[in-house]
């Protein structure tokens, strides 16, 4: 099996490389000299109404409405239109949160049946998730049972156990009623005239129902189900603001609610959802009173804690632990998951754009690289978003609104770029990386740009920088701070491309330099130290987190740039979050020279990078693209030019000479005079103009971008496998069977190298899992499933079924196909 | 002609006499009256603004909502940072979360009791120190309430003042016209259409969008200017004008029929007064009769209506601006209410309260100037005829 996986992995990597190279050469040859993005201009407008957004699309006034919509009627309009198409995103989900206090609320003296885990578990049988997904959400949702999102990698990894449990907890209202009745009697309640009573009073359950979306109907549905089995139900309708003081912040023992219709959102494809049990079933993570009242069985608590703390040696061990956690989570059911919502982002059919599987178009990092009109180079694309330029833009503490970040991502770039369909990181500004992990940690690699090795120790060299002296404005080395030496769990050696210093150019025409990278490291320390002129109290918590795992940095070479980074932080995928200091801050790109102006303004207490500091000092929050900040920054630019200001000169002076400083400020001055703002990045588009009050932003293609527009074409759309399953639909118990499985994408055989696993599951007529295994690869994208007599003899007469589950390396969403089997003796 | 002049002179004499009488009145009485009115209006402003503060804070309940939101948001912030936090020990994570939560609570002043803060809000509001918003930012990213309001004021004024003047003058002239054609087909049509003003402007806006944008495709469905905005002042202005046609039309349609009906009724009443009949009998020109014998006595209610409508429009139209995606104060206020952003809500209201108080105050004076029958300070203390 390991051998097979290795072969597949190697094959898949080779395929990706070939695809990249092939795509690059063909497209670059066909559409050469088009660098940055495909489009000439992107005009972004504000349109808060989803219905109006779809109307604008229908009328051809916009090309993309980049919000994720969940309205089934609007979805139907898009489906009915020949001019429109869409991408799906799976970022939000709904659940029922139970109040676990009791069984009698101290505050009200009322009975709380949901204090009993078995009653909560029975609620899984009572609710019909298919009904909720199909009827309440109009088909724009899929049933969900676990804390793992059905579209993300961990669910694919757990798919066998997950399908088994989904079958076990399928809708069964009779069983639910039976269990609840047993437990109610055990609690001392009695049913009088079909109504539950406790201590002579009617048992009344309070459901806190959110009104903003479909959860309104979900709440009513659940209330009706409970009324049907003898409970009186009080339906309390509330908005998020009204509900949160009750469900989240009140003491559960006060009895403010029994059930709350909860909902959560994911914005990125999480490759590791291991925190879910600790967060959702225990008091480990969430500090609010409700979560602090969670008291799971010890085994679940320990498993949750261990999975969260990554207390396991291998990936296989983690999967084993998670399988058990899935079971125990269902038994605990302090919340039951209902559905994963399938939102859609509509756009015109002649448009190509990349959407993130979790975050949609707005959450995608790749959208500016792939956005184009099909078979056309150039042109102007109109995109509408519910809101834009909502807050001030600055790289450290500027706007973090998802729609602002969508635009910011077009203007800047990280050292790596997340695959929108699997969450794996590909190199962006980096060439390659070597990752050394301390032996015994569960880390694996998939892509070939990262070389993974396991070592006994990662010893941090004495000359590596490990801390910062804000007074002297110099780094403190490992030798100075840790004379006895220092080790780390992970070391990443990052290689920038040989030509990075010549080819990577900031939008204002300044060449990228090592100083930009070092500046980003300095600011990780300096702003949190009281001795600094730029001290910001709000930077302290992040600084503490950072220094908690940071173990050192060494600049091995400045041309080409090679950086060694030592940290105790690691991820199960070696490719994830390779730290190479490329200057993309929390909220966007920043070159040392435009950041320097911000620092000068902050030192003079005229502007502040963060809103906290701005509020505390009653000054303006720094906005590099508009408002009163511009005047201040312009003033600082003149000052910087006069003094040829080099920030943190004791350190950065080593990397910046006076000539470079003068040239950079001159470039920035020209940029400001031309564009009217100080936002410079290295992304495929630059901010041409921002019309703040009108709610319009103009992005234009950056001609000097080093990469051809075709570089990320392979990510233009997700390669979700399609399954064709053929074989006997009527089977005799004890017979041998063969089923044929063909896997395709858009009618063509699915690349075999990209197929991770093809599994089968056999369920009997009572939904019990009878057998599971892997299909046999018989050629290209064709597989066979052999079901022997020993399996079919375990079936019982009725409707059995076979499920085929395909997981792919190119998309984390598993594809499931089933075939009903009429089974007879 | 001679008779007409004589009548005018007689009238002038009468008005002059009244003015003389007024000017020769007790200055102290007028000063006392003005002081009393000022105090009364100030008290109204204080009470009104404090009530707004209480309502906007839901009597302090917004604090609970805020704390819950902060707690939730901080937890979500940490979830989003999970990759950076990695396997941070749970204790450290909670401490980190506590620090973030407390900092945000401090920033919003939640470490102070609401009742104390309510008086700080009141003091700041009355001194027009509008301060900083809690959540909302201006379009250019500033948290200063003054800036938030000022940036949105021009689009609102453009929309509202344009529609207001169109509405005002159409209503005035058509009402005058109809007062001379009482019972005509047009008059009956206006009377019939008057109830249509019960529907709000956005209601007509939706239909206008449907007709002129969705079906005919000749006018934009929303926004203030084309995207990208045309370069150059004239093309920009023309684009704004084009975008303003539908919302302005919606505002005019929503108000015009009832306004015409009201004023036409006023004019009819005044045109049947004895002195008007007398003027007609004397053979004065129709224009003179309309201007001096009908319009002038109806000026006080018209000016009141004019002034009140003007200040009520300064805050824009919440729903209409949303329907037309118009970046005005109404939309801003809607967002502020949704976010429980008390400083912004109070800031907008306190300006309105002051405008209202000043308007009422000046209307008292203007009444006295325009209408000779008005006596200051006669009868009951502070009363007005």
Description of the structure:
The complex is a heterodimer of chains A (825) and B (385). Chain A has 825 residues and is α+β, with helices and mostly antiparallel strands. Chain A has 26 helices and 43 strands. Chain A has four domains: 30 residues; 250 residues, Dipeptide-binding Protein, Domain 3 (Dipeptide-binding Protein, domain 3); 241 residues, no CATH class; 103 residues, Macroglobulin (MG2) domain (Immunoglobulin-like). Helix content of chain A is 32%, strand content 26%. The radius of gyration of chain A is 29 Å and the shape is globular. In chain B, helix 10 crosses helix 12. Chain B is 75% helix and 0% strand. Chain B is mainly alpha-helical and 385 residues long. The longest helix of chain B is centred in the middle third of the chain and has 39 residues. Chain B folds into two domains: 129 residues, no CATH class; 183 residues, MetI-like fold, CATH 1.10.3720. At the A-B interface, strand 1, helix 2, helix 10, helix 20 and helix 22 of A face helix 3, helix 4, helix 5 and helix 7 of B.
Q: What structural class do the secondary elements of chain B suggest?
A: mainly alpha
Give the percentage of residues in beta strands of chain A: 25-35%
**What is the count of β-strands of chain A?**
43
How large, in whole angstroms, is the Cα Rg of chain B? 28 Å
How many domains of chain B? The number is: 2
> What is the second-level CATH architecture of the largest domain in chain B?
Orthogonal Bundle
**What is the CATH topology of the largest domain in chain B?**
MetI-like fold
Instruction: List the chains of the largest interface with their residue counts.
Output: A-B, 75 and 61 residues
What structural class do you assign from the helix and strand content of chain A?
alpha+beta
Computed CA radius of gyration of chain A, to the nearest angstrom: 29 Å
- Enter the CATH topology name of the largest domain in chain A: Dipeptide-binding Protein, domain 3
Q: Uncertain runs of chain B with pLDDT below 50, 5 residues or more?
A: 1-7, 379-385
Averaged pLDDT of chain A: 90
The end-to-end span of chain B amounts to: 35 Å
Q: In CATH, what is the class of the largest domain in chain A?
A: Alpha Beta
């Amino acid at each position: 099996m390991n051998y097979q996986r290795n072969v597949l992995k190697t094959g898949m990597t080779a395929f990706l490389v070939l695809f990249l190279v092939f795509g690059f050469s063909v497209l670059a040859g066909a559409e050469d000299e088009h660098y940055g993005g495909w489009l000439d201009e992107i005009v972004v407008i504000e349109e808060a109404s989803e219905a109006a957004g779809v109307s604008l699309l229908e009328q051809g006034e916009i090309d993309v409405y980049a919000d994720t919509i969940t309205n089934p009627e609007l979805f139907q309009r898009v489906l009915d239109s020949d001019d429109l198409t869409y991408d799906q995103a799976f970022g939000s989900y709904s659940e029922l949160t139970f109040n676990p206090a009791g069984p009698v609320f101290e505050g009200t003296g009322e009975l709380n049946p949901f204090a009993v885990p078995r009653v909560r578990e029975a609620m899984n049988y009572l609710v019909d998730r298919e009904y909720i997904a199909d009827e309440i959400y109009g088909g724009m949702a899929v049933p969900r049972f676990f804390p793992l999102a059905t579209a993300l990698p961990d669910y694919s990894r757990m798919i066998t156990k997950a399908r088994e449990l989904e079958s076990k907890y399928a809708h069964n209202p009779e069983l639910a009623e039976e269990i609840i009745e047993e437990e109610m009697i055990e609690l001392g309640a009695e049913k009088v005239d079909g109504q539950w009573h406790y201590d002579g009073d009617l048992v009344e359950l309070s459901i806190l129902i959110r009104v903003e979306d479909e959860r309104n109907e979900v709440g009513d549905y659940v209330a009706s189900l409970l009324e049907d089995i003898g409970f009186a139900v009080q339906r309390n309708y509330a908005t998020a603001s009204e509900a949160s003081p009750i469900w989240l912040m009140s003491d559960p023992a006060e009895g403010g609610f029994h059930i709350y219709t909860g909902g959560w959102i994911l914005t990125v494809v999480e490759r590791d959802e291991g925190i879910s049990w600790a967060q959702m079933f225990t008091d480990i993570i969430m500090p609010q009173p409700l979560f602090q009242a969670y008291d799971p069985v010890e085994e679940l608590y320990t498993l949750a804690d261990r999975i969260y703390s990554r207390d396991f040696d291998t990936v296989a061990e983690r999967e084993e632990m998670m399988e058990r956690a899935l079971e125990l989570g269902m038994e605990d059911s302090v919340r039951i998951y209902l559905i994963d919502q399938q939102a859609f982002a509509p756009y015109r059919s002649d448009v190509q754009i990349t959407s993130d599987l979790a975050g949609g178009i707005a959450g995608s990092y790749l959208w500016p690289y792939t956005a184009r009109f099909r078979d056309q180079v150039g042109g102007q694309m109109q995109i509408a978003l519910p809101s834009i330029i909502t807050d001030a833009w600055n790289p450290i503490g500027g706007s973090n609104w998802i729609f602002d970040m969508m635009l910011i991502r077009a203007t800047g770039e990280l050292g790596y770029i997340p695959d929108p369909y699997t969450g794996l990181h590909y190199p962006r500004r980096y060439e390659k990386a070597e990752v050394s992990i301390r032996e015994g940690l569960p880390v694996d690699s998939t892509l070939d740009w990262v070389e993974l090795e396991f070592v006994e120790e990662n010893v941090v060299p004495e000359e590596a920088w490990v801390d910062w002296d804000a007074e002297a404005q110099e780094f403190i080395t490992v030798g100075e701070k840790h004379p006895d030496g220092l080790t780390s769990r992970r070391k990443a050696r990052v290689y920038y491309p040989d030509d990075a210093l010549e080819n990577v150019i900031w939008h204002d025409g300044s060449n990228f330099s090592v100083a930009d990278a070092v500046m980003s490291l300095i600011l990780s320390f300096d702003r949190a130290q009281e001795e600094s002129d730029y001290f910001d109290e709000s930077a302290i918590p992040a600084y503490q987190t950072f220094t908690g795992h940071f173990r050192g940095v060494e600049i091995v070479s400045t041309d080409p740039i090679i950086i060694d980074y030592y940290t105790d932080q690691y991820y199960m995928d070696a490719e994830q979050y390779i730290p190479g200091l490329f200057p993309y801050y929390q909220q966007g790109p920043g070159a040392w020279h435009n950041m320097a102006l911000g620092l000068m303004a902050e030192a003079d207490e005229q502007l502040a990078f963060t809103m906290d500091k701005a509020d505390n000092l009653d000054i303006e929050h720094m906005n590099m693209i508009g408002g009163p900040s511009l005047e201040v920054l312009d003033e600082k630019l003149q000052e910087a030019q006069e003094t040829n200001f080099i920030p943190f000169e004791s350190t950065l002076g080593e990397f910046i000479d006076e000539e470079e400083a003068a040239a950079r400020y001159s470039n920035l001055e020209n940029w400001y005079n031309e564009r009217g703002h100080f936002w410079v990045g290295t992304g495929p588009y630059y901010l041409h103009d921002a019309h703040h009050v009108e709610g319009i932003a103009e992005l234009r293609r950056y001609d000097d971008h080093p990469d051809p527009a075709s570089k990320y074409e392979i990510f233009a759309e997700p390669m979700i496998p399609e399954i064709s399953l053929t074989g006997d639909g009527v089977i005799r118990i004890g017979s041998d069977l063969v089923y044929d499985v063909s896997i395709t994408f858009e009618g063509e055989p699915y690349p075999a190298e990209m197929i991770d696993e093809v599994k089968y599951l056999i369920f009997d007529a009572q939904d019990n899992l009878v057998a599971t295994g892997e299909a046999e690869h018989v050629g290209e994208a064709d597989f066979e499933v052999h079901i022997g007599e020993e399996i079919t003899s375990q079936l019982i007469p009725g409707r059995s079924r076979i499920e085929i589950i395909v997981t792919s390396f190119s998309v984390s969403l598993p594809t499931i196909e089933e075939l009903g089997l009429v089974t007879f003796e | 002609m001679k008779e007409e002049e004589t009548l005018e002179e007689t009238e002038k004499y009468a008005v002059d006499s009244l003015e003389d009488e007024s000017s020769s009145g007790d200055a102290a009485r007028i000063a006392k009256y003005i002081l009393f009115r000022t105090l009364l209006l100030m008290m109204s402003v204080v009470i009104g603004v404090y009530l707004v503060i209480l309502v906007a804070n839901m009597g302090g309940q917004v604090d609970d909502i805020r704390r819950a939101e902060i707690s939730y948001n901080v937890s979500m912030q940490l979830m989003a940072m999970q990759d950076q936090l990695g396997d941070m020990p749970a204790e450290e994570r909670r401490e980190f979360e506590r620090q973030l939560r407390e900092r945000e609570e401090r920033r919003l002043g939640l470490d102070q009791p609401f009742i104390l803060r309510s008086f700080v809000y009141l003091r700041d509001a009355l001194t027009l120190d509008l301060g900083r918003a809690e959540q909302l930012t201006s379009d250019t990213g500033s948290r200063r309430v003054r800036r938030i309001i000022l940036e949105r004021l021009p689009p609102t004024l453009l929309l509202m003042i344009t529609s207001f003047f169109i509405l005002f003058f159409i209503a005035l002239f058509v009402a005058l016209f109809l007062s001379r054609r009482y019972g005509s087909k047009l008059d009956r049509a206006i009377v019939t259409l008057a109830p249509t003003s019960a529907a709000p402007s956005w209601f007509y806006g939706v239909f206008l969008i449907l007709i002129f944008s969705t079906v005919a495709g000749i006018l934009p469905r929303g926004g203030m200017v084309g995207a990208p905005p045309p370069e150059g002042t004239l093309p920009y202005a023309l684009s704004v004008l084009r975008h303003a046609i539908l919302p302005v039309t919606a505002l005019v349609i929503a108000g015009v029929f009832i306004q015409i009906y009201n004023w036409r009724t006023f004019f009819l009443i005044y045109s049947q007064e004895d002195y008007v009949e007398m003027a007609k009998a004397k053979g004065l020109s129709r224009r003179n009769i309309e201007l001096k014998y009908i319009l002038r006595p109806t000026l006080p209610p018209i000016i009141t209506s004019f002034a009140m409508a003007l200040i009520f429009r300064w805050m824009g139209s919440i729903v209409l601006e949303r329907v037309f995606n118009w970046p005005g104060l109404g939309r801003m206020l809607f967002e502020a209410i949704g976010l429980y952003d008390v400083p912004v809500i109070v800031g907008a209201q306190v300006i309105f309260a002051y405008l209202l108080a000043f308007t009422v105050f000046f209307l008292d004076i203007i009444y006295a100037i325009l209408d000779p029958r008005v006596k200051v300070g006669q009868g009951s203390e502070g009363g007005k005829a």
